[in-house]
Amino acid sequence: DTAVSQTPKYLVTQMGNDKSIKCEQNLGHDTMYWYKQDSKKFLKIMFSYNNKELIINETVPNRFSPKSPDKAHLNLHINSLELGDSAVYFCASSRWTGPRGDTQYFGPGTRLTVL
Amino acid sequence: GQQLNQSPQSMFIQEGEDVSMNCTSSSIFNTWLWYKQEPGEGPVLLIALYKAGELTSNGRLTAQFGITRKDSFLNISASIPSDVGIYFCAGQLQGGSEKLVFGKGMKLTVNP
């Protein structure tokens, strides 16, 4: 009965590789997000999708490409991985209630380590 | 970008003590949220506040949405060892999108 799930939990890879992280929510929400948490635990939004449409893109390098095949899924693909991409990536979801937004529920995170 | 100033950055307390933390900003927020993150897990929502002046409790936790809409505090009473973790405030800006702005977190350690 997991609400927001992410795979994989851990991802270790070499610089220059391409990798994907998957996210699924079974809460019936129509808005999903990707956050990056750095080594100092600072959480920063990267992307947000509402009904499969991109609504927030926080000037993330275009090596990062989110894809939302449907409302329940938001995947993150990263090309040409760099050392600085090492972080924990969190997926989150919420109901769409207009500009005010609604409470966001987070997944367990994916720890990406780039060697 | 917009920033939330969260303080203190860390606290070491004895079991049974109360603890307070707060977040301030120079911007006005429509919503304040408090999350707790345990090691290896994602942030979990503790309390959501939607109106200026609102005071809400969740068990031993109490949070308030500041009357100026620029600040919020979270109190934990009678702390227990499982309260350890990182506590984040987060807010949604007035006139902004559903984007959440997070504070830098407060790491709480509770000594039994």
Notable characteristics:
heterodimer, A: 115 residues, mainly beta, 11 strands, B: 112 residues, 5-stranded antiparallel beta sheet, 55% strand
Task: Describe what this molecule looks like in 3D.
The complex is a heterodimer of chains A (115) and B (112). Chain A has 115 residues and is an all-beta fold. Helix content of chain A is 0%, strand content 55%. Chain A contains no helices and 11 strands. In chain A, strands 2, 4, 5, 6, 9, 10 and 11 form a 7-stranded mixed sheet that branches. A 4-stranded antiparallel sheet of chain A has the order 1-3-8-7, with no helix packed on it. In chain A, β5 (43-50) and β6 form a beta hairpin. Chain A is globular, with a radius of gyration of 13 Å. By secondary structure, chain B is mostly beta strands. Chain B has no helices and 11 strands. In chain B, strands 2, 4, 5, 9, 10 and 11 form a 6-stranded mixed sheet that branches. In chain B, strands 1-3-8-7-6 form a 5-stranded antiparallel sheet, with no helix packed on it. Chain B is globular, with a radius of gyration of 13 Å. At the A-B interface, β5, β9 and β10 of A face β4, β5 and β9 of B.
Brief description of this entry?
The complex is a heterodimer of chains A (115) and B (112). Chain A contains no helices and eleven strands.
Give the termini separation of chain B.
39 Å
Can you give the helix content of chain A as a percent range? under 10%
Written as H for each helix and E for each strand, in order along the chain, the element string of chain B is EEEEEEEEEEE
Residue stretches of chain A low in confidence (pLDDT < 50, at least 5 long) are: none
Cα gyration radius of chain A (Å) = 13 Å
Pick out the low-confidence regions of chain B.
Answer: none
Strand content of chain B: over 45%
Q: Give the terminus-to-terminus CA distance of chain A.
A: 34 Å
Subunit arrangement of the protein: heterodimer
Radius of gyration of chain B: 13 Å
